[in-house]
Amino acid sequence: MAKSKLIVHNLHKVFQVDEGFGRFSSITAIDNVDLEVSEGELVTIIGPSGCGKSTLLMILAGLYEKSSGDVLLDGTPINGPGLDRGVVFQEFALFPWLSVRNNICFGLKMKGTPVSEHDRIVRHFLKMVKLEEFEKIFPHRLSGGMKQRVGIARAMAYSPELLLMDEPFGALDAQTRTSLQQMLVDIWAETKKTILFVTHSVREAVFLSDRIVVLSRRPSKVRKVIEVRLPRPRQRLSEAFLRHEEELEELIAAELSAESETQEAYPA
Amino acid sequence: MQRATEATIPEVGAELRPEIRATPSYYLHAFLDNFIPLAFVLLLWEGVARLEIIHPALFPTVTEIFVKMWELTLEGIFLKDVFHSLARLLSSVFFAMIVGTLSGLLMGTSRWVEKVLIPPLNFFLAIPGIAIFPIVILWFGLTEKAIIFTLAFEASLSIMLNTWGGVKSVDISLINAGRALGAHGYALFYKILIPAALPAIITGYRQGFSRAWRILVAGEMLASIGTGIGFRIFEARAFLASDVMYAGVIVIGILGFLLERVALRSLEIFTVQRWGMVREL
Fold it and tell me: Which residues of B fall within a CB distance of 8 Å from A166?
């Protein structure tokens, strides 16, 4: 097995929830998660909605604090956000006051990449996401799919070690979604980036991943890790593909029914 | 551009509206849009005044007012008044922009500053600037300083309130994106928070200008400072020079209008509207 890029060990996350009128309660979002991602691997995290998979990704991005446990990137503990990771957000989060070009340059400027390099880098990544003509356009003129392509280019431009994607195609229509999944696989094959991808779509997970990490309902634990050994390019309608889908559907359905049982056990 | 889009992008909905071009006809249209409704009001006024239902000394015709305005302009009185009033307005609002924007930004980012500043902000917002004017006169005398202080007081609170609200409602995902892209501390402030809050900050400037402009005219009347449009109107009252009074009022309206339409609206068009952060109607 290739060398580990990311190691998550014993991760816990407890949220303080303000119930109003000065009362607080704590909710455990993540309970004892262990995870390892190898160099150049594409791993997806899937689980029932509200299970804390986005929370996990935000902790890896350094945007949320962890409660306890270890997160190591290339053997170094993660402490807050950093340019060694690129983050792609579900809500795109492009800066509306910057042109497509300047959105992509943002990380380069913060990293201190020489300005003479910017032109070349911007061109390269715009070409990669097939948006060459849109360099000078402001984001509000782009469609959702185009916005997220800029989001991907922006997160990769400063060449981070690890790409973290938080349900990046969740807000897009089915057609755009499929085309962006293909684009991502192509980019990954070309760049050999390590990618950790959060999704709630089993089809997306099977199409993209080397491995799929299935999380339990909240508080999330790793329920199962599934290796997807299907050859690429993957056929969404092949028998093996559908079998993987079915297995995942069943795992998630089991989690959901377990959840409704707990709710019955503790009526509001 | 449109054809290139169709050729390379398989998605629909990539609507590319043409950029607003600053052509002569664009400015002509902008002028006419604003001028036609005004011209209609002026015509109506002229008609009613010529009927002499109201005594001409109380309600002069538009023609008389504009002739008087022209005379006062030729004598140099009006230009001096306008200049002094604008100088007072601009210097005080400039000061208020700095104080109001900075304190509003701090309030929006630091829980501690917010806690300390909310009570005084709400307290002072309840007080009309003109109510403190007599007290300010005790401090500074009947001087420029007294007027400028009162105006700055009035404007800075509006700017502060709007900036604070604007920063607090900045989309958390933009802040997260900024942090993920390596912005922290000061850079997060001026690269993310200020541009993201700009629509609200501009609204604050608008309110600051219009509130200060109202107080300015009242202040010039009270302070009898010798120049300024407010002073001119008040002085004309003593001589029952109603044409001067009306001319003064109209000039106040025109200047306020120009400040909004030319200065602040342009700022908006070239920033937040170009970025799609406010809707284009």
Answer: none
Beta bridge partners of A45: A198, A213
Q: How far is CA A257 from CA A46, A260, A264, B191, in A?
A: 16, 5, 11, 46
Pairing of strands A4-20, A162-166: unpaired
Domain boundaries, chain B: 63-273
Burial of A173 (0-12, 13-18, 19+ CB in 10 A): middle
Q: Token digits for B195? A: 């541009």
ipTM of the complex: 0.90
B32 touches chain A (CB under 8 A): no
User: Distance between CA atoms of B205 and A45, rounded to whole angstroms?
Assistant: 47
- Residue B280, chain A, CB below 8 Å: the answer is no
Token couple for A10: 């014993």
Fold of B63-273: MetI-like fold (1.10.3720)
Please report, as a single letter, which amino acid is at residue A26.
Answer: S
Q: Note whether A104 contacts B: Cβ–Cβ < 8 A.
A: no
Q: In chain B, where does DSSP find H-type helix? A: 2-8, 24-50, 62-74, 77-109, 111-125, 129-140, 144-168, 172-180, 186-188, 194-223, 229-238, 242-258, 265-268
Report whether A247 contacts A226 (CB < 8 A).
Answer: yes
Spatial distance between the Cα atoms of A116 and A68, rounded to a whole number of angstroms: 42
Nearest to A97 among B10, B173, B275 (CB): B275
Compute the half-sphere exposure of residue A260: CA atoms within 13 Å on the CB side of its CA. Answer: 5
User: How far is the C-alpha of B281 from the C-alpha of B269, rounded, in Å?
Assistant: 11
Q: What CATH number is given for A40-67+76-84+161-268 in this structure?
A: 3.40.50.300
B76 touches chain A (CB under 8 A): no
Q: Would you say how long chain A is, in residues?
A: 268
End-to-end CA distance of chain B: 24
Residue of B nearest to A93 (CA): B174
**Per-residue pLDDT tens digits of chain A, which is 268 residues long:** 568 899 999 999 998 888 888 888 888 889 889 999 999 999 999 988 878 899 999 999 999 999 999 999 999 999 899 999 999 999 999 999 999 999 999 999 999 999 999 999 999 999 999 999 999 999 999 999 999 999 999 999 999 999 999 999 999 999 999 999 999 999 999 999 999 999 999 999 999 999 999 998 888 889 899 999 998 889 888 999 999 999 999 998 888 887 555 554 444 4
Q: What does chain B come to in residues?
A: 281
Closest CA to B154 of B108, B93, B221, B113: B93
